């Protein structure tokens, strides 16, 4: 059966690090919701979700397993959209949660900017989004 391994968590929580270092994940095709914001810095969460769904459908036509990175908190519209869309394509979602203290997430994002991996504008936006959605209760998920 086709499946999507969904790495869930805020920006800076360790999703990309896990995807690029875990032998199970590193060679799989990936869709990162951050790519939607990089393509269109003004897009909203719904546009970003539709971008992810379109890319996941495209990849699942050629691959049995794909990795999806994003903030798909249980009970949210984006998570429901992803699960429902995967069902339509005959795939299942396997969720893996990542969490880190907000100070760690902010530092990781800032480090990416300092290394030249992201622009100053992306750094500011990711930290702003992080502060809007971060919750200490997520540690329990």
Tell me what the structure shows:
There is one protein chain. This protein has 141 residues and is of the alpha/beta class. The longest helix has 16 residues, at 45-60. Helix content is 49%, strand content 16%. α2 (33-39) packs across α3 (45-60), α3 runs parallel beside α4 (77-88) and α5 runs antiparallel to α6. It has a four-stranded parallel β-sheet with strand order 2-3-1-4. It starts with a strand and ends in an 8-residue tail after the last helix. The protein is globular and about 40 Å long. It contains six helices and four strands, in the order βαβααβαβαα.
Search tags:
single chain; 141 residues; Rossmann fold; four-stranded parallel β-sheet; 4 strands; globular
Taken in chain order, the helices and strands follow as EHEHHEHEHH
Structural class: alpha/beta
Rounded average pLDDT: 90
Quick one: CATH class of the domain at 2-99? Alpha Beta
Largest sheet: 4 strands, parallel
| Count of DSSP-assigned helices | 6
Task: Outline the low-pLDDT stretches.
Answer: none
The share of residues in extended strands comes to: 15-25%
Q: Return Rg in Å.
A: 15 Å
CATH superfamily of the domain at 2-99: P-loop containing nucleotide triphosphate hydrolases
What best-fitting shape do the alpha-carbon axes yield?
globular
Q: At the third CATH level, what is the topology name of the domain at 2-99?
A: Rossmann fold
Strand order of the largest sheet: 2-3-1-4
Query: What is the correct CATH architecture of the domain at 2-99?
Result: 3-Layer(aba) Sandwich
- Our measurement of the CA-to-CA distance between the termini, rounded to an integer number of angstroms, reads 26 Å
